[in-house]
Amino acid sequence: MLRVAGCCFLVLLASGLDIAYSESKCEPVFEYFPYCLDFLTGYDNKPSKRCCDHIYKLNRLAKRGLGAQMICWCIEYMVRGTEPRIRADRISELPTKCQTHLSFPISEWKDCNAYSLLSFSLSFPHHKTFY
């Protein structure tokens, strides 16, 4: 019994460390993504310049830093179950309105494990490349 309790404690401790580690990796997403929420939830008709600037930064992180999967997970972690919900039509408008592309998925309920930089990129004709 004591051995089982000890094993359970170690599993819980390890999972807590994993969550804390993942949350610390999400700090850039937690800093940049909220600037787009007013547009994505429908409060604003267009994304702010700051939102677009931060989408460029997140694109760069998807390509050369955290990766699309981690950014996807961080966004889900941040917005899942919150109100108002992110609107699908606004997600699809964001790249065009910011004149860029998305190198990461935005959603509340995606299988983030299915995405990598190579498998996900919404491209639009008038996009800015930001490195």
Automatic annotation (TrEMBL):
Superkingdom of origin organism: Eukaryota
Pfam families according to UniProt: Tryp_alpha_amyl (PF00234)
Protein's recorded name: Non-specific lipid-transfer protein 13-like
Keywords for the protein's UniProt record, in alphabetical order: Disulfide bond, Signal
InterPro entries: Bifun_inhib/LTP/seed_sf, Bifunc_inhib/LTP/seed_store, Plant_nsLTP
Gene3D superfamilies noted in UniProt: Plant lipid-transfer and hydrophobic proteins
Domain Bifunctional inhibitor/plant lipid transfer protein/seed storage helical as annotated: residue spans: 26-102
Classification via SUPFAM superfamilies: Bifunctional inhibitor/lipid-transfer protein/seed storage 2S albumin (SSF47699)
A GO biological-process term: lipid transport
Protein family membership: Belongs to the plant LTP family.
Taxonomic lineage of the native organism: Eukaryota, Viridiplantae, Streptophyta, Embryophyta, Tracheophyta
Leader sequence segment: 1-22
Gene Ontology molecular-function annotations: lipid binding
